[in-house]
Amino acid sequence: MFLLCFIHYEYILNVFIHTIVSFFLYCICKRVKGGILSGKLVFYQMEGNATYVRDTGELASDVPTETMFELFDPQKNFSTAKFTYTWDLGNGYKEVIHGTEPVVRYHYSESGNYTLRLKVGAKVTKYAPLITDVYSTDVQVLDAIKHIELNGPSDYEVSQNTSLAFHVDGSPPIWVCWRFLPNCVPDMTGGCTLIVLYENTLRLNHTFTSTGVHCLDISVRNDISKLQTSFSLYILLIHSLYYTGLHLTLRSFTTHSRGARYRKLICSGPIYPDQ
């Protein structure tokens, strides 16, 4: 008789505990958004000593990246819960993290479109069922702009229509702002010409009206990077002299140094046989 009463008492106690836990979880779910875990994903990228918050869904390729899940729990309902995090970066690589550190560290080696998925599990008490939620976000990985290269020589002829071609790496679209500075004299009042590239080649046509060293300032940016550089271009005055059996080409340009002007002559050309 005593044994039956003890078993009956233990059964009632288990039912009571289960009821209390269920009611507690019901209250939590009523407080948490939509009856599920509420939070957001935050992306960070580290370049040198700088850390950037990427909140537009765009990341730079081949850059150390950290993604963190921030739980929204103002009532501290999950302050003592045990969490598990399952990360799928969308590139065939998975990392499972158990514990209280809701972060994954990685990098995308190639540009492209990826879908990052996170499954969060929370266990409030030992007897409580596991609460789970799944987060998914689309990520566009872009190549950062790191170099601008001039395809061609650095010396050109004065008063001639000149075509310049530059290779700009990075993922388009790329915004370019450029300007020429005669004699490389800074112009604080002048602006620059803004264009948009949908490829990686910048082509400029320009006629230089004076000899000397001219500077071309170029500023470029895309959605995740920016770069500024300057090119020194040597503008020459070309003279051709014809003598019997001799053809000389004289290239000259004027340089400025400490207020003085210097004119340099470069002599070149083949020797033709007498006709």
Q: Could you explain how this protein is built, in words?
A:
There is one protein chain. A hairpin with a 2-residue loop joins strand 18 and strand 19. This protein has one helix spanning 2-31, and strands spanning 39-47, 50-54, 58-60, 65-71, 82-88, 94-98, 103-106, 112-123, 131-142, 148-150, 155-157, 161-168, 174-181, 193-197, 201-207, 212-222, 225-243, 246-257, 260-268. The strands form four sheets. Strands 11, 13, 14, 16, 17, 18 and 19 form a seven-stranded mixed beta sheet that branches. A five-stranded mixed beta sheet has the order 3-9-8-5-6, with no helix packed on it. A four-stranded antiparallel beta sheet has the order 2-1-4-7, with no helix packed on it. The protein has 275 residues and is mainly beta. Residues 1-7, 15-35, 240-250 and 254-275 have low confidence and may be disordered. It contains one helix and 19 strands. The protein has two domains: 37-142, Immunoglobulin-like (Sandwich), CATH 2.60.40; 148-268, Immunoglobulins (Immunoglobulin-like), CATH 2.60.40. The termini are far apart. The radius of gyration is 34 Å and the shape is elongated. It comes from Sander lucioperca (Pike-perch). Keywords: Glycoprotein, Membrane, Signal, Transmembrane, Transmembrane helix. Pfam families: PKD (PF00801). Residues 84-120 form the PKD domain.
